Amino acid sequence: MLGVHFAIAPEQERALLVAVDEDELGDFLEELEESWADDSLKVDTDKAWDAIHRCLTDGSLDPDAGDYPLNHAVLGGRHLSEDYYVVYLTAAQTRDVSEALQPIDQGWLRRRFDAIDDPDYIGAGDDEDFDYTWTNFVDVRQFFERAVAAERAVLFTAT
């Protein structure tokens, strides 16, 4: 699954939250992806979202694992779909996550990465995998800073 974070505008947030079923949600997501114009308010994490979430929590993909607000950087938050990951954060939660991500350095993330001991983790777990995770983590951290500056809610999708 490929992960994407979007910093959604208030009108997009309202439309998202009134989607009543999977079909409406799917239509919303399709339109969002096709019409997205501001790359500074979007970040693609490819498959690195998996390791990032694991590093920021307890090493699992459990959305409830770990502590708020770090556990909300990827999978924590309001889940809007039963079929795939569509996770919503309010603007206030986005601010909390951004502040929590700022002090994380490469050494801290590496220790957490090396501690992943879940047989379901599909990454290689080697130096190249960590470099890929770190690079994407930095992109996510910068994205959250931009989302806060724009006073936006965040939507994470993995399909």
TrEMBL record:
What protein is this chain from? YfbM family protein
Q: Which domain of life is it from?
A: Bacteria
